[in-house]
Amino acid sequence: MYFTNLPNHDAPGFDEQVHFHKFKKHNIIFNATSSESHCDNHVGCLSFKTVLSGEEWYGIGRQQLAVRPGQFLILNNEQNYSCRIDTHEKVRCFSIFFKNDFAVSALQDIFQSEEYSLDNPFQNTGVMPEFFQTLNEIKPQVQQRMSTLIGSLNQQGYNEVMVDEHLLFFLHELIRVYRADIRRVGEVAAIKPSTRTELYKRLCIAKDVLHASYAGNPDLNSLSREACMSVPQLIRQFKSVFGLSPHQYLMQIRLVRAAELLKETDLTATEIAGLCGFENNSTFGRAFKMAYRIQPIQFRKAGL
Question: What is the pTM of this model?
Answer without folding.
Answer: 0.84
